[in-house]
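If you are new to this repository, start here. Below is one unmodified record pulled from the training split, so you can see the exact layout before writing a loader.
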Amino acid sequence: MNIGIIGGGNVGGALARLAMSAGHDVVVGVREPGRLANGIDAVASRQAAMHAEIVILALPYVACVDALPALRDVLAGKIVVDATNPLNADWSPLLLGQENSAAEEIARLLPASRVVKAFNTIFADTMIPERMQREGGYRITAFVVGDDDTAVAHVADLAYSLGFAPQRVGGLAAARYVEAMAHLNIAIAMGGGGTNACFLFDQKPV
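And here is the target side for that same chain:
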């Protein structure tokens, strides 16, 4: 699968390495192309978006307002995975309103794209092979949220191929819940819990 990742930070780099290891064709896009600190070569964001079937947004949410309008045409019709979280500079929650989320705002910025929320509850520090398998053999849960069932299924398949356990949550409005989960995870980490924590959703058969 052709994967484009917009953003070359810790999350973007970690997802890129996992996707490459899983056999996907990956291109990372950034504002200033070149070799990133993690050793991955990056191209312009527009080039990465044009290359991909699925485009993952792994840049700060607050940067999306400026970055996405210029990519709207090349992202039209494509699956766009929102891996962002609405955060202030001090990592506290950026409040968007009780009936809103970063994913819903991104869907408004990209009205012709098929926006899916995923990977936002997973710290980059856990996105490495030796930390992917948790005690008891559990995979880290990747919550997948979206209105387009086909797009959600493709992203769930991608998440599984990367080594995660995909869990569908509901329509895009449910991104409000998984973003709140990310805020909780960050608060625990900043309180001394560290960033090797993750969510494991154990759904037992009825």
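Two things worth knowing about this chain: The radius of gyration is 16 Å. The mean pLDDT is 92.
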